[in-house]
Inverse folding.
């Protein structure tokens, strides 16, 4: 049987792998790094030799040679919110195209955690960071200075000294509200307002789009139809819908500021023996994968999540490869996805 006998302390080198596969150590390096084209049969021999010999690449040495680690960071507020889990999945797919793995951190929307991530102490072993802040906001641009391999997502910080990818929150919310108005609804409520955050946030921008559309149609903005939901979780949507149903004059339609809130609202309707859209129409925001399979399937806004993921990773790659110049400000396209809930 062909093989080598070695003690557990024996260190296998690329040269050993090359000798076993009948190629040079450089060819072994090309196969493992993907840095050059190698014939499929050669690649197969090298990988078989790697497995037989138990070779492990010295990633620290490779990092010192190339200045790259092969990983990027992704910092987001809460993976328990469907949008962020969907976004993370899409970013991982896009990062793989560039040969990157992704290390994900949840900030919990805590300011001290977000600042710690930006400090660089946690970023020494990655090639860059894609970051969606929640606790940081206008006036915190100074904390981004010196972070050239950084892409900011979301609505908290605009016109900073780094690349930024955002979504058209105000226009998208107006689109959702306009759709409900065209369907003949006049008593339209929202779930997801958060008066504790600044005017530059998804909650405030979506409320602004909703309010503008009502005003343009000559309709009042009723305080009892604006439901606060600070967390945007399932329970918040369920509680918000229960609050609206308890009103002397419940709404005819509800615009939820994310799909997770909408799923919670649908649950409350079902628990009360009510149905969407027959009793109350419901529309969400995010078009997460589950929206197609809820009962009924959820009408929602698609904010361009796939576009956000691709643009963010491509911008970061441009920075890492030294191809970028001035910081970019990109805004994704949004669209209405009509299903059965509204």
């Amino acid at each position: 049987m062909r093989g080598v006998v070695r003690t557990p302390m024996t260190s296998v080198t690329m040269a050993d792998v090359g000798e076993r596969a009948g190629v040079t150590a450089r060819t072994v390096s090309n196969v493992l790094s993907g840095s050059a084209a190698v014939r499929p049969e050669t690649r197969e021999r090298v990988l078989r030799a790697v497995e037989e010999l138990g070779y492990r690449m010295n990633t620290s040495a490779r990092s010192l040679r190339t200045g790259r680690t092969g990983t990027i960071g992704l910092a987001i507020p809460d993976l328990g919110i469907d949008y962020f889990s969907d976004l993370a999945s899409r970013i991982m797919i896009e990062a793989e195209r560039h040969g990157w793995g992704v290390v994900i951190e949840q900030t919990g929307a805590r300011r001290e955690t977000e600042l710690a991530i930006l400090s660089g102490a946690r970023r020494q072993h990655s090639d860059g960071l894609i970051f969606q802040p929640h606790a940081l906001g206008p006036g915190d641009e100074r904390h981004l200075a010196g972070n050239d391999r950084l892409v900011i997502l979301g609505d908290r910080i605009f016109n900073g000294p780094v690349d930024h990818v955002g979504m058209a929150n105000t226009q998208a919310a107006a689109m959702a509200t306009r759709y409900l108005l065209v369907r003949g609804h006049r008593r339209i409520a929202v779930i997801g307002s958060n008066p504790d955050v600044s005017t530059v946030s998804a909650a405030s921008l979506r409320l602004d789009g909703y309010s503008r559309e009502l005003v343009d149609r000559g309709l009042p903005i009723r305080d009892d139809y604006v439901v606060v939901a600070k967390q945007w979780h399932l329970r918040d949507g369920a509680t918000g819908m229960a609050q609206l149903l308890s009103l002397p004059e419940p709404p005819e339609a509800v615009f939820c500021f994310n799909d997770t809130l909408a799923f919670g609202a649908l649950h409350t309707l079902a628990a009360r023996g009510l149905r969407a859209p027959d009793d109350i129409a419901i529309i969400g925001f995010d078009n997460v994968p589950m929206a197609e399979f809820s009962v009924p399937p959820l009408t929602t806004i698609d904010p361009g999540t796939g576009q956000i993921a691709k643009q963010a990773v491509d911008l970061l790659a441009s920075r890492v490869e030294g191809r970028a110049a001035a910081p970019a400000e990109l805004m994704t396209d949004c669209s209405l996805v009509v299903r059965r809930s509204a």
About this structure: Confidence is low (pLDDT under 50) at residues 1-9. The radius of gyration is 25 Å. Residues 15 and 25 are 5 Å apart (CA to CA).
